[in-house]
Amino acid sequence: MRRVYLATTLIFWLLVSAFWAGSLWLPSAEESVAVAAEKVITQSELVRHALPDNCWMAIRGKVYDVSAYLPEHPSRPDLVLPWCGKEATEAYDTKTKGRPHSAYADELLATYRIGSLATDKQ
Amino acid sequence: MSLLRRSSIPLLLLASTAGPVYWAFPEGLSPARSLGIVLGWAGCGLLLASLLLMLRETWLSRWLGGLERMYQWHHLVGMAAYVLLLAHPLVLAADAWPASPVLAWQTLSPFSQGWPVRLGWLSLLLLMLGLAATFATRLPHRSWRWLHVSLGVGVLVGLWHLLQLGIEEPVLPILALAALFLGWRILREDSGLAARPYIVQSATPVADGMVEIALKPLAEPIAATAGQFVLVAFFAGPTFRGCGEFHPFTVSSIGADREIRVGVKALGDCTRRIQSIEPGVLARVHGAFGTFLAERPAAPQLWLAGGIGITPFLALLRTGPLSQETTLVYLYRAEADAAFLQELRALAARDPHLSLQAVATGNEPPNLDSLLPTAGELVQHECYLCGPPGMLAAVRQSLHKRGITPRHIHFENFGFR
Questions:
Q1: Which of B27, B223, B270, B315 has its CB surrounded by the most CB atoms within 10 Å?
Q2: How many CB atoms lie within 10 A of CB A61?
């Protein structure tokens, strides 16, 4: 039993170190998706994607298709779904007790980015 | 042991694992993320079962096949839960790796995420520390126990981690059960509420570093039979100061007036102090536990005792003459270590069914091939063994070589901690 404990604990820390090292030396998601994120999406197109299985949100000027992620979101669906098809920056920045989402959430969000929200002039 | 008792712990584990996994089984997620979630819930269920298995209640131990068996499973299940819970965050991070290695690290890192992940990390670190202490057998018993408590705290923090993730429905009942089991253990067992008050009547040195203590009940006595053990905490007397911790001791005698006697060998700080115990010391006794020597068939028997392992056999011999042909092999280092040897010789001289073979082995491991009866002599015998784990393993191996199947080998060791 002692051997199992030592072996699994050692493997755990080695893998944690490998994930940390990978995050330092391998390219980040932000860079890899940025190239494909140039499409400009208008407000009228955004509102057409307001359903749970077709849910776009605009956050800080960028548009994200979060349909695939919604089933994984930790909070209750009735908190998130009303923001589909809308500018949701305020909701994103005022999670529990007015706190913004974490750096992890920012990184995760980047992987769902599909374009930029058109300004009024566009 | 009946089939129901043998299967009680596996069934308990199946229910405690399958229940939360079924409830939380993910739909529509990637295989790796689903696996990560299932691992977390399975680990959580196993930890809950492991907490139940550390309770020391006589009725519960009867249902689950004895306290020693419960403790073996408690260790095994705790370790299995630890391995699953170590894998849980790693698999969740691996799921994010194809999207981005940075995302994978942020899934795992306690620095980039909020309190849910930090609490998950704290829980894992407490489990890691508690298990490290569990395996550090050289630690003094008191320090060892406090570090072992960090495992219980780790379980509660792990459940808090789930609450922080916004999952309340199955977590609140699990948290209530975990708190109940921990509180039960602390209040009823560690604080001694489940134990009965006794007073030390006499203390007789029976070998080097071993004393036999007679305990008289001050209220309703416990129910004990030969072969069982009790948990006893010794407190203060006129000049003696006990350590007040519950330790397991095998019952060596059960008197008609419900007085019990226990054999205490100096194995650690607390038991070393008990060697100088005096009459009048107050004690609390919890039990009795164990099924060793219970339901013995009418077949001829081989009993093998190593050192202090003689006490359960002595307790049975003191209840009266045997009805089965019995060979008792008693192994000890030297005459000075041979507790109760004179009494055993007298008992063997009086009982025509008992044959005693007392052997001083010295400091070397005994030559079991010459000590044990031959395969022919052991046909249709039931074998009962009690002694240190190393000796038991060697004897069991020798008996297997002589064609004795595990079903006919019953044993109790001193690995109870």
A1: B315
A2: 11
Q: Are B20 and B133 part of one and the same domain?
A: yes
Please identify which residue in the block is written with the tokens 């940390």.
A20
The CATH classification number of A36-117 equals: 3.10.120.10
Interchain pair B131, A5: CB under 8 A: yes
Q: How distant is the Cα of B26 from the closest Cα of chain A, in angstroms?
A: 9
Q: Which residues pair with B264 in a beta bridge?
A: B211
Domain that holds residue B228: 196-289
Determine the pLDDT at residue B107. Answer: 81
* Nearest-angstrom CA–CA distance, A89 and A57: 9
- Tell me which residue in A9, A12, A107 faces B102 most closely, judged by beta carbons: A107
Q: Mind listing the pLDDT tens digit for each residue in B199-224? A: 999 999 999 989 999 999 999 999 89
Contact A29 B107 (CB under 8 A): no
| Domain count for chain B | 3
- CA–chain centroid gap for B408, Å, is 22
The residues spanned by each domain of chain A are: 1-30, 36-117
A12 Cβ under 8 Å from any chain B Cβ = yes
DSSP secondary structure letters along A51-78: ETTEEEEEETTEEEE-TTTGGG-SS-HH
> CA nearest B164 in A: which residue?
A74
The verdict on A30 touching B (C-beta cutoff 8 Å) is yes
Question: What one-character-per-residue DSSP string does B106-139 give?
Answer: HHH-TTTS-HHHHHHHHHHHHHHHHHHHHH-TTS
- H or E, element range at B287: strand B282-289
- Contact (CB<8Å) A1/B116: no
Please indicate whether, in this complex, the C-beta atoms of A29 and B102 are within 8 angstroms of each other.
yes
CB contact under 8 A, A28 and B100: yes
CA angle, corner B394, sides to B391 and B395, nearest 5?
Answer: 85
Select, from the ranges A90-99, A113-122, B85-94, the one with the highest average predicted confidence (pLDDT).
B85-94
Return the closest-CA partner of residue B44 out of B208, B171, B224: B171
C-alpha distances in angstroms, B5 versus B70, B79, B306? 11, 22, 28
Query: Please, what is the average pLDDT of chain B?
Result: 88
Confidence (pLDDT) at A34 = 47
Q: Which of B289, B321, B338 is the last residue of a domain?
A: B289
Rounded Cα gap, residues B262 and B213, in angstroms: 5
Does B150 lie in the same domain as B28?
yes
| Single-letter code of the amino acid located at B175 | L
Geometric angle at alpha carbon B109, from B105 and B113, rounded to 5°: 110
A-chain residues near B165 (CB < 8 A): 74
CB of A35 within 8 Å of a chain B CB? The answer is no
Residue B294 lies in a domain: no
Q: Which among B39, B106, B131 is the top mutation candidate for probing chain A, defined by the most A β-carbons within 10 Å of its own β-carbon?
A: B106
Residues A52 and B87: their CA atoms lie apart, in Å, by: 32
DSSP state of B213: E
Q: CA dihedral defined by A57, A60, A61, A66, rounded to 10 degrees?
A: -20
